Amino acid sequence: MSELERLKTLAGRRKNYAAIMFIAPEGAATYTDGDVVQQPRRMRLLGKRLRLVRDTRIPKEEFITSAERVEAAAVPLQSALDQVADPKAERPLLVKVQVGIAKLVRQELMSLKNGWKSDYTEAEIHEIIESVPDAKTPDPKKPPDAKPPNDEPVPQ
């Protein structure tokens, strides 16, 4: 049962109860409808509104209890949303990590090749480890160049 439903029950299930209408003019949909990313914000707003209500049928402590429950429920939702934040925002950091790993792998390969030089010829080493040209560090803000789907030159 939602906190608004609980409060309506305490008020005797009156349909157009003024205190509930003040808090949620469109019912629970006032706070539940919409983008889930904004849900914790709406829940905190509901908590604030619940704390403002003064009513003769329902004790103030009941509104405060509801406010605390709603605000507490917003915390894990916000935490979950923070964990799945926009991946585009993480792209620049992930590109730097990718470049760092590539550099580390290259250094390890060079070290391995240098260790083998006493036992193998350069040609034998290149049969095992191919030579790879230096790659430019990708610009995280610039998407890779797109090629036409059929690799034919684009008419001018």
What does this molecule look like?
By secondary structure, the protein is an all-alpha fold. The protein folds into two domains: 3-83; 87-128, no CATH class. Helices cover 60% and strands 0% of the residues. The chain has seven helices and no strands. Helix 4 (39-52) runs antiparallel to helix 5. The longest helix is centred in the middle third of the chain and has 30 residues, at 87-116.
Order of helices and strands: HHHHHHH
Count of individual helical segments: 7
Q: By helix and strand content, what is the structural category?
A: mainly alpha
Number of domains: 2
The outline comes out as: rod-shaped
Largest sheet: none
Estimated share of beta-strand residues: under 5%
Estimated helix fraction: 55-70%
Radius of gyration: 31 Å
How many distinct beta strands? 0
Q: What's the rounded overall pLDDT mean?
A: 80
**Unreliable runs, pLDDT <50, ≥5 residues?**
none
What's the end-to-end separation, in Å? Answer: 66 Å
